[in-house]
Design goal:
Helix content of chain A: over 70%
Strand content of chain B: 5-15%
Pfam families (chain A): SpoIIIAC (PF06686)
Strand content of chain A: under 5%
Protein name (chain A): Stage III sporulation protein AD
InterPro entries (chain A): Spore_III_AC/AD, Spore_III_AD
Oligomer: heterodimer
Number of domains of chain A: 2
Radius of gyration of chain A: 21 Å
Number of strands of chain A: 0
Keywords (chain A): Membrane, Transmembrane, Transmembrane helix
Largest sheet of chain A: none
Organism (chain A): Paenibacillus cellulosilyticus
Structural class of chain A: mainly alpha
Number of domains of chain B: 2
Number of helices of chain A: 5
Distance between the termini of chain B: 99 Å
Helix content of chain B: 55-70%
């Protein structure tokens, strides 16, 4: 029943933000940021279950651990970048938010560099020499 | 053969399952496109793995090698911010350097001033004074005074004087020569004195000690005197 707590927290925070925004927009923003942070940290522990399930799966089937590591890094980067971008976007800074998302995308793509390297090397190795 | 085939299929199925879960976990559409590319590459690598193993040997190791090499290159490229410890260590080094320079400057200046004072009292020229400050640089540890060799006239005077007063060799630094002087003092004193550089008359010594005590408050036992 955690979802009820979280939705309740979100609703209360929304009402408070609406009330405060008229007088102090600054505090409204702080309240929104704090609420987002709280929910994020509260629920990020639950992802642990999913991740441990993924690890177990990888261990049982014996796929290289480097794949799982890369995939988990991608998930982490995506979540963190998304979260930061949302908070900044709440404050009305659309430009900064899109830059954060851009950084996240670049970092995810950078994860692919070693894999692309290996594929290219192998494909070049498949070519008959001097052909 | 069947084992190998089933292992390969199991790998592919697992990776695709992983890819599906990642797709579910990703927060928004924009990120999904990029993540899908990487995950797709991984799936491709898994499907190709028998082919790669056939042609290129153990490729898992190569993936890991290239991954670690790439990570190391990334960490080398990143800007190295100096830590607070490094900064404070550097500051300490600089300040000790500065103190050392200040101490050596003070030693030199004191030496020059003392040499001038001694010269003016003795009426000689070319006295060299080496001052050594103590460890903390706040007080004078020792003073080594080298007075010029006496003129022929002075030397004669001094030999007369020495005959009266019985010369005392003062040098403390070189104890061997002191022994020699005392042992040889029964011999020809004037000749001994000409070739023995460490002999200073008691009068000169007392003048120098007085000058240094009045001017800089240096105790006589911190002073070493020798002739050139």
């Amino acid at each position: 029943m955690e979802i009820i707590q979280i939705v309740g927290l979100g609703l209360i925070a929304t009402v408070l933000i609406l009330v405060v925004r008229e007088q102090k927009p600054m505090f409204a923003f702080l309240l929104a940021a704090f609420t987002g942070l709280f929910i994020f940290l509260y629920i990020i522990g639950r992802i642990d279950t999913v991740i441990s399930m993924l690890e177990q799966l990888a261990e049982q089937t014996g796929i290289p651990s480097i794949y799982l590591k890369t995939i988990l890094k991608i998930i982490g980067i995506a979540y963190i970048a998304e979260f930061g971008a949302q908070i900044v976007r709440d404050a009305g800074q659309e430009g900064v938010a899109s830059k954060i998302e851009f950084a996240g995308k670049v970092l995810i793509l950078v994860m692919a560099v070693p894999i692309i390297n290996v594929i290219v090397e192998t494909v070049l190795g498949l070519m008959p020499p001097g052909g | 053969m069947m084992d190998w085939l089933s292992g390969w299929l199991r790998d592919i199925i697992t990776v695709i399952l992983l890819a599906a879960i990642v797709d579910l976990l990703l927060p928004n559409k924009a990120m999904q496109r990029y993540a899908r590319l990487v995950v797709g590459l991984i799936v491709l690598l898994t499907i190709l793995s028998p082919l790669i193993r056939l042609f290129a040997g153990n490729f898992n190791e190569r993936v890991e090698d290239s991954m670690t090499a790439w990570e190391q290159a990334g960490s080398i490229n990143s800007v190295q911010m100096p830590t607070l410890q490094q900064i404070s260590k550097e500051a300490q080094r600089l300040s000790s350097e500065r103190q050392r320079q200040a101490a050596s400057l003070a030693e030199r200046e004191l030496g020059i001033a003392m040499a001038q004072e001694v010269d003016s009292r003795l009426g000689s020229t070319g006295t060299a004074v080496m001052v050594k400050l103590s460890e903390d640089g706040k007080s004078i540890a020792s003073v080594l005074i080298t007075i010029p060799p006496p003129e022929e006239q002075q030397a004669d005077d001094q030999t007369d004087e020495a005959a009266d007063n019985s010369v005392q060799p003062i040098d403390i630094a070189v104890s061997v020569t002191v022994d020699e002087v005392t042992s040889a003092s029964s011999g020809d004193r004037g000749e001994e004195k000409d070739e023995e550089p460490t002999v200073v008359t008691a009068e000169q010594q007392s003048v120098i000690e007085q000058a240094l005590r009045q001017g800089w408050g240096i105790a006589p036992k911190q002073i070493q005197i020798r002739t050139k």
